[in-house]
């Protein structure tokens, strides 16, 4: 019964490696971008604040698949030739960045104002307050939602297959078209995604519980 | 004509097609939202049951849905059911996939709202002589609903955005329409800016409606 799945497993695992690489790049760079934007949003600059607010509003209101298509077609429109991986990867980074920016901004705003006043009364300067007082506390608050956002980002890499990027889900469709064994292949692929995603899920849940006790 | 005028004229000409796709997106959402809301409610009883088996089975289902991509779930339904001799339409497969996934998320939203109501509220209601059900209906539920509204609105916005995935199995909704226009004309990325705007308007309106309801409910309580 499972012969089709076992026969195709090496091919699917190759796809899983691409999915993992794509996930690491998207989660890593998307989180970096989002944290930078989130910090920018809490500076004194009004312009920066409204830019980040607009960025978050627009991207969170649009499906990631549409942003991927936009990225895929935008580069050629500007006369640039980049691989589909780069175009779609960048689109995902920009998208994940919006969610992470919102998480970072609310975590920073959740740090009690008294902490900042206390740091200032100790004579600390703004950069020192940010790095030594605000970010360590905001980081603790932000960890559970950041892990959840990473989980969502990993699952979203599968949508790149719709735009024509070869990864696990694309590989699965190829195998199903060849073998017609839809159940075995898609259930097998779900199992592979589960193995990648479940540890993230557990980490998110664990950190939620730990941080709930810490407060 | 310069670029801006040309693009504007082109997008304007595509407006009827995009609107038709938008209507399908609305129909997908309108079909999937009640199903997902209902599935979440159905799963709530076993999720919060005393029986460890019922709880375990529900958590297993929720974890499976949470840790696998919706796109693969939709493929499983769309390509899997014909193997079993069922041939539902692409539209139904998409709606089923979205409802099955979001029902799993919603049961956790409901549960979190209910569990956020302090145990003392329940104890007080019981001490006043209310039965379990009555205490739930009159004391727990109204307070829980209040706290559920915010996350519920966010979840439904995610659901609406997820209808775009049904384009992968060939439903001519908004995203698919954008792709088809690109393939059949000289259009390029601009069409997806227009597609994005349609989604943005829809999700903003739904978001604003939820905030309004939340505000009204908060005022009454």
What's the helix and strand layout?
The complex is a heterodimer of chains A (215) and B (221).
Chain A (H helix, E strand, L loop, with lengths): L2 H39 L4 H15 L3 H14 L6 H27 L2 H9 L4 H31 L3 H4 L4 H12 L2 H33 L1
Helix pairs in contact in A: 1-2, 1-4, 1-6, 1-8, 1-9, 2-4, 3-4, 4-6, 5-6, 6-9, 8-9
Chain B lengths: L2 H45 L4 H15 L3 H11 L9 H26 L3 H9 L4 H31 L11 H11 L5 H31 L1
Helix pairs in contact in B: 1-4, 1-7, 1-8, 2-4, 3-4, 4-6, 5-6, 6-8, 7-8
Explain the overall architecture:
The complex is a heterodimer of chains A (215) and B (221). Chain A has 215 residues and is mostly helical. Chain A has helices at residues 3-41, 46-60, 64-77, 84-110, 113-121, 126-156, 160-163, 168-179, 182-214. Chain A is elongated, with a radius of gyration of 21 Å. Chain A starts with a helix and ends with a helix. Chain B has one domain (3-220): MetI-like (MetI-like fold). Helix content of chain B is 81%, strand content 0%. Chain B is built from 8 helices and no strands. In chain B, α3 crosses α4 (90-115) and α6 runs antiparallel to α8 (190-220). The relative contact order of chain B is 0.14. The mean pLDDT of chain B is 93. Chain A binds chain B through residues 57-58, 60-67, 69-70, 73-74, 76-77, 151, 155-156, 158-159, 161-162, 169, 172-173, 176, 180, 182-183, 186-187, 189-190, 193-194, 197-198, 201, and chain B through 63-64, 66-73, 75-76, 79-80, 82-83, 157, 161-165, 167-168, 175, 178-179, 182, 188-190, 192-193, 195-196, 199-200, 203-204, 207.
């Amino acid at each position: 019964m499972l012969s089709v799945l076992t026969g195709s497993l090496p091919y699917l695992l190759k796809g899983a490696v691409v999915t993992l690489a794509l996930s690491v790049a998207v989660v890593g760079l998307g989180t970096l971008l989002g944290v930078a934007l989130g910090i920018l949003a809490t500076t004194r600059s009004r312009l920066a604040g409204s830019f980040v607010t607009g960025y978050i509003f627009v991207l969170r209101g649009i499906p990631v698949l549409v942003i991927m298509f936009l990225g895929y077609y935008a580069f050629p429109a500007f006369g640039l030739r980049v691989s589909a991986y780069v175009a779609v990867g960048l689109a995902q980074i920009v998208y994940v960045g919006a969610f992470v920016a919102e998480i970072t901004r609310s975590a920073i705003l959740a740090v009690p104002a008294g902490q900042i006043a206390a740091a200032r009364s100790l004579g600390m300067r703004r950069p020192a307050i940010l790095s030594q007082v605000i970010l360590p506390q905001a980081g603790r608050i932000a960890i559970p939602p950041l892990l959840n956002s990473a989980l969502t980002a990993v699952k979203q890499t599968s949508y790149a297959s719709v735009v024509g990027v070869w990864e696990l889900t694309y590989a699965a469709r190829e195998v199903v078209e060849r073998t017609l064994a839809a159940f075995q292949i898609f259930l097998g692929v779900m199992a592979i995604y589960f193995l990648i995603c479940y540890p993230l899920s557990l980490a998110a849940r664990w950190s939620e519980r730990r941080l709930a006790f810490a407060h | 004509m310069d670029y801006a005028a040309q693009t504007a004229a082109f997008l304007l000409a595509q407006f009827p097609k995009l609107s038709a796709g938008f209507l399908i997106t609305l129909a997908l959402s309108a079909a999937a939202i009640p199903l997902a809301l209902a599935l979440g409610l159905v799963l709530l009883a076993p999720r919060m049951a005393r029986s460890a088996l019922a709880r375990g089975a529900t958590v297993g289902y929720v974890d499976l849905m949470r840790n696998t991509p919706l796109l693969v779930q939709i493929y499983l339904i769309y390509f899997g059911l014909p193997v079993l001799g069922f041939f539902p339409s692409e539209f139904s497969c998409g709606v089923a996939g979205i409802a099955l996934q979001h029902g799993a998320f919603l049961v956790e939203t409901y549960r979190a709202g209910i569990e956020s109501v302090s145990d003392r509220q329940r104890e007080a209601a019981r001490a006043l002589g209310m039965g379990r059900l009555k205490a739930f209906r009159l004391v727990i539920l109204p307070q829980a609903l209040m706290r559920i509204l915010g996350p519920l609105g966010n979840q439904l916005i995610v659901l609406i955005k997820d209808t775009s995935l049904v384009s992968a199995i060939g439903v001519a909704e908004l995203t698919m329409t954008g792709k088809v226009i690109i393939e059949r004309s000289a259009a390029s990325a601009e069409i997806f800016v227009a597609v994005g705007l349609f989604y943005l308007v829809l999700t903003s309106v739904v978001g604003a409606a939820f905030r309004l309801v939340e505000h009204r409910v908060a005022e009454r309580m």
